[in-house]
Amino acid sequence: MSAVGAAPALVAGGDLTTGRADFIERAQTRGDLFVEQPYDLYSKANQETWRRLYRALAGKWEQHAHPRFLDGVARLGLDPDRIPRLEDVNRFLEPLSGFRARAVSGYVPAYLFFDCLRRREFPTTITVRDGNRLDYLPEPDIFHDLAGHVPMHTDPAFADVLVRFGDAARAAALRGRDGDCRSVESALRALARFFWFTIEFGLMRRPAGDGLCAYGSGLLSSAGEIGHALESPGVQRVPFQLEWVVNQGFEIDSLQPLLFVVDSFRHLEREVRRLERWLGEGRLDNVAPGEPAVSREDLRSFLDAGLQ
Hints:
The protein is α/β, with parallel strands linked by helices and about 300 residues long. The protein has a single domain, classed as Phenylalanine Hydroxylase (Orthogonal Bundle), CATH 1.10.800. It contains 13 helices and six strands. The chain has helices at about 20-30, 45-65, 65-75, 85-95, 110-120, 140-155, 155-175, 180-200, 215-220, 225-230, 240-245, 265-280, 295-305, and strands at about 100-105, 120-125, 205, 210-215, 235-240, 260. The strands form two sheets. It has a four-stranded mixed sheet with strand order 4-3-6-5. The chain has a two-stranded parallel ribbon with strand order 1-2. The chain is globular, with a radius of gyration of 19 Å.
């Protein structure tokens, strides 16, 4: 059964293409971060982009995705032919893990994003990538968020990992109470690297022990990335070690040459708990410099949270 109802009438001239959506520009001008999903504004081209992306990924999911991701796709009833309505997704999602997708107008400052996870809310982009650039997008879109991230949120164990990650962000913010911006910036870089190499680009051993599979949303929402990650001889796939992960830089605009492998979701949860302890103890106050760059807005979000 699909989570999406009958096709709505489209508003003439409507469009929610990433970077070209008037609705988003107006919301940002007003300072509205959390918004409603204006479903009638999706154009025929937006819907066709969703269909093409889904068709490109469905077979690769069957081949490479973690079984819990596939189960999540089925539980959510994602429609391969239409962009989902968030209200329908949440109707299926909330009873399973307590999580809900919440529409946003654009970039969410880092601390606010992680704190949303702690409250079991997932900030969800509502625009759709340009149909001429299906397999590369440096910023998230609704396919990345709903088809890449949210199916894993149906799993209670994975959902608990996200909540724990929000707790770790709180521990990092508290490092700034003494005004030491440098330690907070370092902790934020460590958080970003951990999130990148797990929630976004994580690999895991298959439950049956026969090889590897993908659970990270950056892999699961890109036909190019998922095949490259699991098939290319040029990719280093190394066992997860927290010391390596928090000191390893990454680039967002190229295929990933290095990925980390966890044994299970229980293993992932243990590592998040260890990350939280290390943050609280100040053990991540001086990680290796480099990517990702920490923006002033993200740093300020952590410093302000630490003073509350």
